[in-house]
Amino acid sequence: MVKLDRGSLHAILEHAILAPSADNQHRIRFGLAEGTISIRSTAVLPPAGGYKWVLALLSLGALSENLAIAASRFGMRGEPVLFPDPSEPDLIVRVCLEPGQATPDPLWEIIPLRHTNRRVRFHGPGMTAAERGELEAAVRAYPACQLSWLDHPQQRRQALRLMRRAETERFCSRALHDELFSAIRFDVGWGNAAPEGLPPGALGVEPPLRPLFSLLRHWPVMRAANLLGAHRMLGWRSCDLPCRLAPHLGVLAVKKLDEHSVFDAGRAFQRLWLVATRHGRVLQPMPASTLYALDGARAEGIPLALQRDLAAGWKASLGEVRPVMVFRMGKAKPQSVDSARRSLEHYL
């Protein structure tokens, strides 16, 4: 059996929980027993095929990739197994640590440095051929996944039309508006981090606009502002403008939309993000247009016309693969406020 001292094991888990999630909440608990790490869900997984299901699996994949990378630091191979026991539906991942089976992955040192950056402007220079090759190799490690770059002007225009439509919907749909603003921790103020949820200071909102943005969390105010076109302005500001200013726009897709492929996409995206961080670049995930294109999104409140338009648009751009994540990438100063995490004890 594997014998790791408590400090080393906790270091692995502390790196695991630094993985990203849609609302900065990991709804999991770790179980430890004789060289095995069990990850159990504290919430019922959303129905398969919808965007909430995809987000949950992407987050779980990213967390599992962090865990495997951190374990390699101690010479341990830790290959995650998704849903290992059908009789235990809350047991979502099991990792058996195998000693002497791995060389340290240098990305373990990068895990604490990875953050979402929402500054409006990302600048260049663009990737070198070698850097592009490293990012593409990170994704190729997972054969179910495909990485495409949307840097050609025509490709970017097509993608931005879809992204702008999806982002605009987040401000004119009551359900999506509530979902968006419920994750923002206005109670911590604009200058502080938050252990769960999104601190408003990490959202990249310019100081003069912060009072207005705070008011828009109230649906009656948002609905009234939409009569003046606020939803279109916000869609442009939150998506279109930042993507036009970014040197690179990428999309991660899966060849088929099943739980293992989406889980692997989460692992691939986290690995790509860590490599980009090592290159000195920042990244912002912007997945709304891909998630709202899913067939199951209609059952989660996405209008039929929007879902069909997004699905058709991505199919025309990418073919038969199913996009699950769009992101912009470039260089920018670190944000003054970033999301934090609960202590490891919360997850044990």
Short account of what is shown:
The chain is an alpha+beta fold and 348 residues long. 41% of the residues lie in helices and 15% in strands.
Structure notes:
This protein is 41% helix and 15% strand. The chain has 11 helices and 8 strands. The chain has helices at 6-16, 51-72, 129-140, 153-172, 174-182, 210-215, 219-226, 230-245, 259-278, 288-291, 304-318; strands spanning 28-33, 36-41, 76-82, 91-99, 145-149, 248-254, 282-285, 322-330. The strands form 2 sheets. Strands 1-2-4-3 form a 4-stranded antiparallel β-sheet, covered by helices on one side. A 4-stranded antiparallel β-sheet has the order 5-6-8-7, sandwiched between helices. It starts with 5 loop residues before the first helix and ends in an 18-residue tail after the last strand.
Question: Main attributes?
Answer:
348 residues; alpha+beta; 4-stranded antiparallel beta sheet; 11 helices; 8 strands
Topology:
Layout: H1 6-16, E1 28-33, E2 36-41, H2 51-72, E3 76-82, E4 91-99, H3 129-140, E5 145-149, H4 153-172, H5 174-182, H6 210-215, H7 219-226, H8 230-245, E6 248-254, H9 259-278, E7 282-285, H10 288-291, H11 304-318, E8 322-330
Antiparallel strand pairs: 1-2, 2-4, 3-4, 5-6, 6-8, 7-8
Helix pairs in contact: 1-2, 2-9, 3-9, 4-5, 4-8, 4-11
